[in-house]
What does this fold into?
Amino acid sequence: MNEDDLKSIEDICEKTWEPLYRYIYYKVQNREEAEDITQETYVKSLSYPKFNKIEFKKYIAFFKTVAMNIIKDRWRQNKIRGTNINIDSIAHIEASVDDISDITNQQLFIKSSLDKLNDEQRKVIDLRIIKGYSVSETAELMDKKEGNIRVLQYRALKNLVDIMNENK
It folds into this structure.
């Protein structure tokens, strides 16, 4: 690695760190964890063998994808260790939005839409989609058959889409 490479890496980090950090912070809602994940994202991204083939304008999207994978890995590890993830602490929208009021409005819209589902449908979406449990784990937790969980999830998502379309 020569001096030009170090300068270009420094330039990349300087131009992308703020939107990347804000995106990660929005997801984890913890300053120290956001800093760690931002750092880990750069390490993994810049060491990616084909990183040089990525266009500069696509760097931030690439970094956000890597960051989201790191966050998901941490959530899975926490789930394995038995840590519960609160539905309100999870950032529901993956889009990076600069206006905090837009983010808050989107979160409130999704939460109010979820609240209109019945308890079983809300629970299956929480377990399967938000917490990432498998069909078999969800079936066990809800004391239902796997086939019933699949049908319940399908109907819950269909109802959620209908509710969200009605409230637009």
